[in-house]
Amino acid sequence: MYCKKNIRIMYTIAMLQGMIFYAPIATLYRQAAGINILQITVIESISFICQILLEVPWGIAADKIGYKKTMVINCTFYFISKIIFWQASGFSGFLLERILLGFVCAGLSGCDESILYLSSDTGKSQKVFTMYFNLSTFGLVVAAFVYSVFIRDNYRLAGFLTVISYGLAAILTFGLKELSHEKISREPNTSFTQFIRGITSNKGHLLLLTAIAFLSQTHQTITVFLSQLQYLHSGISPQYMGIIYVGINLIGFLGLYSFRLSKWLGEHKIIILIYGMSALSCGVLVFSINPILSVFCIVLLRISFNLLSPLSSELQNREITVSNRATALSYNSMFINSIMTAINLIFGRIAKENLSLALAFGMLLCILGGVLFHLWFLRRLV
């Protein structure tokens, strides 16, 4: 059911919700508001657990009440969470904001992709996903630029501008067109037990989800957290990290070529290339103390993830043959997030002892992810 209006609205929402004006100083913002690094990590873990626990219930709810209503509810609460963040002071305030964020992320997970997939013309969904993810990055780049040039040390102003952006995104959800379940159904609704049996018995599908989790968490941990330690190790001053942050996000727009590369090389080759580039980047970082080479490897890892994101969404949606699509995607997300949580704990433990070993662990995950994807591809040919 092709719906250009839905796609336009979702694109705009992605850009607005990408405009997190405090992103370049997210940790400093929290510290200035009275919480330390340990408290930040505890709050993040609680939020992630909330999201995992609520993934499937929210997926089922989305299939019952409709994707538009689910977007309206969650984007409204997203807006409220940013108000709380803007005014938060101390552990309890930021904990409340992050618990609400876990609720929202679980609700949006699968719902936004379902709307895009079902609103796209046949064979065009990967292209739509690519634009959707990159518009979010564009919003982040714009916000980072505004922060660097105009906001600077006014942390609370950065929080307030983020509230405005998310408020506009919430308003836009009311313009979405609901998708009829009768028109999109290909099979009868599937029960809880059938879903559980389906996702656990389909070993090939689990290979795909595990491969996605391995690269996703490697990218998240290294580009967001370990990269700063690597920069310091390479002699890069913190004053230049904001500029590097903007530059990496700009270069990440090369992910727009995901659709074209998939058509040119084929899905199998492009994903093997993505995992190979990621493993190479991590491997070089293990031994490199050269600042230019360090930044280049982080950039390469970011490009690899941006190329994978729309393609992984396409592959997951393509394998769904039941009508309750959001529920199926929620099961996928719950499985992926559970693996990512475990990997994150391992990354943190290793990085605390030795940065190079943590980067080597990332290289191992990328290699294993590529192998798992290859095995998944071979099972499809049988």
How would you sum up this structure, described in words?
The protein folds into two domains: 4-184, Growth Hormone, Chain: A (Up-down Bundle); 195-381, Growth Hormone, Chain: A (Up-down Bundle). With 382 residues, the chain is mainly alpha-helical. It contains 17 helices and no strands.
Characteristic key phrases:
Growth Hormone, Chain: A; 382 residues
Q: Which class of the largest domain in CATH terms?
A: Mainly Alpha
User: Quick check: average pLDDT?
Assistant: 85
Based on CA atoms alone, the radius of gyration comes out at: 20 Å
Q: What is the CATH architecture term of the largest domain?
A: Up-down Bundle
The portion of residues assigned to helices is over 70%
Distance from first to last alpha carbon: 31 Å
Query: What fraction of residues sit in β-strands?
Result: under 5%
Count of DSSP H/I helices: 17
Q: In CATH terms, what is the fold-level topology of the largest domain?
A: Growth Hormone, Chain: A
Number of domains: 2
Question: Considering the protein shown, what is the CATH homologous superfamily of the largest domain?
Answer: MFS general substrate transporter like domains
For the secondary structure, the number of strands is: 0
Task: Tell me briefly what this model is.
By secondary structure, the chain is mainly alpha-helical. The protein has two domains: 181 residues, MFS general substrate transporter like domains (Growth Hormone, Chain: A, Up-down Bundle), CATH 1.20.1250.20; 187 residues, Up-down Bundle (Growth Hormone, Chain: A). About 2% of the residues have low confidence.
